[in-house]
């Protein structure tokens, strides 16, 4: 779950490892906020670092629930 002070977002993991991507969508409107293919990262990084860096760049605060994400990979 990704949150800022106005809107909540949900992270969805799609596809199979290691070529999956994640999407961050507005929970209310369904608008796509971020879509990042993991296999396009030039240097492989843990997913949590990618999510954290992406959300920080977008000025979101991330509350990363690894168990919830792992359950849908």
Produce a short descriptive summary:
The protein is an alpha+beta fold and 73 residues long. Helix content is 22%, strand content 32%.
Q: Which range best describes the helical content: under 10%, 10-25%, 25-40%, 40-55%, 55-70% or over 70%?
A: 10-25%
Shape by Cα distribution: elongated
Main sheet makeup:
5 strands, antiparallel
Q: Note the gap between the termini.
A: 15 Å
Query: What is the mean pLDDT?
Result: 52
- Uncertain ranges: 5-20, 38-42, 59-73
The structural domain count equals: 1
The string of secondary-structure elements, in order, is EEEEHEH
Number of helices: 2
Strand content: 25-35%
How are the strands of the biggest sheet laid out side by side?
A: 4-3-2-1-5
CA radius of gyration is 12 Å
Q: Which quaternary structure do these chains form? A: single chain
Number of E-state strands: 5
> In terms of structural class, how would the helical and strand content be classed?
alpha+beta
